[in-house]
Design goal:
194 residues, mainly beta, 8-stranded antiparallel beta barrel
Length: 194
Amino acid sequence: MAVTWRATLGGVCAALTIAGASARADEPPTNPIGEWRVARGVATVRVVDCNGQYWGVIASEQTPGTDTKNPDPALRGRPTLGMPILLQMTPSRANEWSGSIYNAEDGRIYAGSISLVGPDTLQVKGCVLGILCGGENWTRVAAAPESAGGASSQSAPAKPGARDPSQARAQVSPQAQSADDICSGLVGLPRSPH
């Protein structure tokens, strides 16, 4: 079985994120906006601000995947590229945001948080039932020239229209979309964290 970017945190939760593109070069970032490479380097997640909430979508993946564990059988064939996994992250402390994390490994949504532990390091934590928690550190991705063709997957996911934001899909690669386009592709409300 091929190893995927969806490896779970602590064997249970998956999480990804991105940090502060808006900060000046001499100041540390104060928000998670940007693109982050997951710990094993097999995917990146782009974090955007959607009306005061941070959302993270799969921006690139080493091996294209599908959401085979989704509880809705109609969505099990949807591409993971462009899929939201960090949901409704809002401030909880200085440089920390709490919300939900969609785990494509089991098709469930868990309570989670993201925090900036350095200018180029984002820590992602997820918890099952509030007790089994795990975390990983992600690394900021340097901005690439727009004309650069990378190793990221460029297949276009299907059109949005799912019942909850973890099931929304982008029409083009999230790397090529504006934050407004990503936010407008988020549909409905997420299920309660487990």
